[in-house]
Amino acid sequence: NRLHATDVTSSSFRLTWPKLLSQETGYYSLEYGPRGDPAGKRTQQVSGAHTSLVLSHLAPETTYEVALIPESNVHYFPPQTTRVTTLAEEISPVQVLISESGPHSFQVSWAPVLDSVASYQVLYGPLPGNSVEVLEVDGRHNSTVVEHLAPNTTYLVTVTAIYRSGKEKSLSAKACTQEGERGE
After folding, report:
1. 79 lies in the same domain as 38
2. CA nearest 68: which of 78, 56, 54?
3. How far is CA 137 from CA 15, 99, 142, 145, 183, in A?
4. Which of 83, 108, 103 is CA-nearest to residue 93?
5. Which end of the chain is more exposed for a tag (fewer CB within 10 A), N or C?
6. Between 181 and 10, where is the model more confident?
7. Contact 124/151 with Cβ under 8 angstroms?
8. Chain CA centroid to CA 144, Å
9. 130: Cβ–Cβ under 8 A, 6 or more apart, which residues?
10. pLDDT tens for residues 85-144?
11. Looking only at Cα atoms, what is the longest distance across the chain?
12. For 149-183, how does the pLDDT look when each residue is reduced to its tens digit (9 = 90+)?
């Protein structure tokens, strides 16, 4: 029943603490900053009515030291402290594989599949050229089949991971369709 962090991401976390004060009896001073970096320390005043707060715009993969100091005009409360380490930055798809290539279709698959991805967009279009088609793929899947293609053509395929945080990261690969059967 003390200061702790939840909902930790690469750039934010939520602090929750027990109700020590009320609006009438005081306020909290919140101090936080990257461990070992006194210059990076920030201070914020929080109303005594609050028992939680989200800190955002933080650096990824960084340990923050957080101190909550109840400034009460009634009782003395010792400061509450905690350490929170933010998550690694969201990573882009690290490989895009093209397989099962035929004259009119090929399969696109990618890795890794991450919980932080809401959906993937697969963009593809012939090279050279500027016509692009888009397929939306659910974030739980890691492959899709692209169809209705022209034979013997090189396509540029771009897989974009759309993270729940709103960030996007992309990776591209080239794919060639097979020559069509004679008589097509």
Report:
1. yes
2. 78
3. 34, 17, 8, 10, 35
4. 108
5. N
6. 10
7. no
8. 22
9. none
10. 998 877 767 789 999 999 999 999 998 887 778 899 999 999 988 889 999 999 999 999
11. 91
12. 999 999 999 999 998 878 888 999 999 999 987 54
Question: Within this chain, do residues 80 and 104 fall inside the same structural domain, yes or no?
Answer: no
Residue 184 lies in a domain: no
CA 138 – CA 160 distance, rounded (Å):
12
Q: How far is the C-alpha of 60 from the C-alpha of 138, rounded, in Å?
A: 26
> What is the CATH number for 103?
2.60.40.10
H, E, C per residue of 60-119: CCCEEEEEEEEEECCCCCCCEEEEEECCCCCCCCCEEEEECCCCCCEEEEEECCCCCEEE
Look at residues 7, 150, 167, 8 and name the one whose alpha carbon lies nearest to residue 88. Answer: 8
Distance CA(107)–CA(121), nearest Å, equals 14
- Number of domains observed in the structure of the chain: 2
Taking CA atoms, 33 is separated from 49, 98, 122, in Å, by 24, 45, 39
| pLDDT value at residue 182 | 56
Q: Which domain holds residue 79?
A: 4-85
SS3 122: strand
